């Protein structure tokens, strides 16, 4: 009887070990979908995929293109993607609206180079000499209440222009050239390499470099997940952060590798991507980094509640 109990105990122990091993293997092999729009802001994730950095850290990751940034929070909550790259503004408005999202790592931040790459690009036949010339114009933004849109509204306010006097519509980055060419909008809020591409095609010119005038250094895009997923997968989040930190070094120092990954994901010509440096990658994300955005969005009446920055970033 004792021998039978001992054998049973050994069998149960082995079974438990096998179950744990299988569970660990399943977790390691589970594919993580990261959703981002067609810009260089998620370059650290793109590089981490292409250079095998995620695999080195035991993660199986695939990048998923998202047309409009404001669609990312819903994609995260539906589990279509597990991690997304929302702009700071899209993230904050989603949280304010009741979605339990949390930032898990930094992606890109504003700096003089990236600010210079942001423009209001104006189609041929439209003349913009000063901010008030945007009054009455139809302006396309790659996501209403997303990064470029909120920054532009902030700029208009600082220049004494009522944002309500401008008509805003959503236009995805890949379709900007076509809609500018067709006259569907008077201007688009965009960034490199799309600015150079439309300029070279003779579709119009830069009407304003509004981000340069604002001269901020706050987060543009960061990686976010549902709080439930992040807390249940704490080990994966740690590995993800380590991989992103390693890839960020490459993004900021190796133009060749960064450009190749950006061109591959965004489907932009490599030469065009190489012509403009990617936005600065900053893998660290601190709660206080979101304070300015909350202030700006509150002033634009985009937030209904008082958000606590300490709850917005996973420890």
UniProtKB/TrEMBL annotation:
Protein name: ABC transporter substrate-binding protein
Domain (SsuA/THI5-like): residue spans on this chain: 42-249
Range of residues in the leader sequence: 1-23
Family indicated by similarity: Belongs to the bacterial solute-binding protein SsuA/TauA family.
Keywords carried by this UniProt record: Signal
Annotated InterPro entries: SsuA/THI5
Domain of life per record: Bacteria
């Amino acid at each position: 009887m004792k021998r039978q109990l001992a054998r049973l105990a050994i069998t149960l122990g082995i079974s438990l070990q096998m179950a744990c091993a299988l569970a660990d293997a399943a977790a390691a092999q589970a594919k993580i979908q990261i959703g981002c729009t067609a810009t260089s802001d998620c370059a650290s994730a793109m590089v981490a995929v292409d250079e095998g950095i995620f695999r080195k850290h035991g993660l199986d990751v695939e990048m998923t293109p998202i047309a409009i940034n404001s669609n990312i929070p819903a994609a995260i909550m539906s589990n279509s993607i597990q991690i997304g790259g929302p702009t700071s503004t899209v993230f904050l408005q989603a949280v304010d609206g009741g979605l339990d999202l949390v930032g898990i790592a930094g992606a890109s931040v504003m700096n003089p180079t990236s600010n210079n790459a942001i423009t209001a690009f104006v189609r041929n036949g439209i003349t913009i000499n000063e901010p008030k010339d945007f009054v009455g114009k139809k302006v396309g933004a790659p996501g209403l209440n997303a990064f470029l849109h909120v920054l532009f509204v902030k700029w208009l306010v600082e220049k004494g222009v009522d944002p309500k006097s401008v008509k805003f519509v959503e236009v995805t980055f890949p379709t900007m050239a076509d809609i500018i060419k067709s006259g569907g909008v008077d201007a688009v809020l965009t960034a490199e390499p799309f600015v150079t591409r439309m300029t070279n095609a003779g579709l119009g010119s830069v009407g304003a470099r509004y981000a340069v005038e604002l001269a901020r250094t706050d987060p543009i895009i960061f990686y976010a997940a549902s709080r439930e997923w992040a807390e249940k997968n704490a080990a994966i989040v740690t590995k993800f952060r380590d991989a992103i930190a390693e890839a960020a070094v490459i993004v900021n120092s190796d133009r060749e590798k960064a450009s190749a990954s950006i061109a591959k994901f965004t489907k932009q010509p490599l030469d065009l991507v190489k012509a403009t440096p990617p936005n600065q990658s900053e893998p660290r994300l601190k709660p206080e980094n979101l304070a300015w955005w909350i202030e700006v969005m509150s002033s634009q009446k985009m937030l209904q509640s008082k958000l606590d920055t300490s709850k917005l970033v996973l420890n």
